[in-house]
Design goal:
Number of helices: 11
Radius of gyration: 18 Å
Helix content: 55-70%
Shape: globular
Order of helices and strands: HHHHHHHHHHH
Oligomer: single chain
Number of strands: 0
CATH architecture: Up-down Bundle
Structural class: mainly alpha
Largest sheet: none
CATH class: Mainly Alpha
Length: 262
């Protein structure tokens, strides 16, 4: 079995639970030596990517209401929003595997592992949502993460710069304050799940940093100097503090990049 076509097939799956399970199965097959990586194959993009269910309804960001964790419905809506991010993160990792040819084998292995871990995050959140009487799809959501994937699908440098190490890195900053609110709301299980997510997301952002730096070195680019231009060119959101600097350093952000944030 070839990894990149297999990852594309998983990306096309619409059912979230089936997609999450398939991502995990694909990683197990790779670790068992049942998967080959053909980095040179040029694959055609099928219509309708990514596969996703008819719900949640996707609306503009401004139409997604603010969510307070201090009521059951508000906490469910908040956790649904995080589950939606994790579902999109499965898609983003799988897209990174199949779409970009010509990378080292470790690149594809890294993003396959990310897809499997994002699948676990989605599953944990989905199960917790069920315990609150809700399911993924019950609340409206926005499509900001995948929209950035669309904008960067022809530019792997921009993809590495703006998805893992910009949009997903925002989760490193947002998670501890969110955990504090959920702790005050009495939802210890949600806090535990976010502990898992934060720990593994540091690794995911580190993978984005690793391959962004590798690509910049390959192409003779200054990773700090070109970053603001990439933000502007692809319409990435302006980053706002406070920043989780310890997590960002653990994820491989350099002192120069931290200074740029400040």
């Amino acid at each position: 079995m070839q990894l990149r076509p297999a990852a594309l097939q998983v990306l096309e799956i619409a059912d979230p639970a089936a997609k999450a399970a398939a991502a995990g199965t694909l990683l197990l097959a790779a670790r068992a030596g049942q998967i080959r990586i053909d980095s040179t194959a040029q694959l055609d993009e099928p219509p309708g990517l990514p596969g996703r269910p008819p719900r949640p309804k996707l609306v503009p960001v401004a139409q997604v209401p603010r969510r307070s964790p201090f009521s059951l419905a508000g906490r469910a809506a908040l956790l649904h929003a995080i589950a939606h991010i994790e579902f999109n993160a499965i898609n983003l990792a799988l897209d990174a595997v199949w779409r970009f040819a010509g990378m080292p084998a470790d690149y594809y292995s890294d993003w396959l592992r990310v897809a499997s871990e994002e699948a676990l995050h989605f599953t944990l959140l989905s199960e917790h949502l069920h315990s609150l009487g809700h399911a993924y799809g019950d609340f409206d959501a926005h499509d900001g993460l995948w929209a950035m994937a669309e904008r960067t699908k022809h530019d792997i440098v921009a993809r590495m710069a703006l998805v893992p190490r910009t949009l997903e890195a925002r989760g490193l900053d947002a998670t501890p304050p969110l955990q504090a609110k959920l702790q005050r709301a009495g939802d210890a299980r949600a806090v535990e799940i976010l502990d898992v997510i934060l720990r593994e997301e540091i690794g995911h952002v580190a993978i984005g940093n690793r391959w962004y730096a590798w690509l910049c070195q390959r192409d003779g680019l200054d990773p700090v100097a070109i970053y603001p231009a990439l933000l502007a060119r692809h319409g990435a959101p302006r980053l706002k503090g406070p920043y989780n600097l310890d997590a960002r350093r653990a994820a491989g952000f350099t002192d120069a990049e931290i200074d740029l944030l400040r």
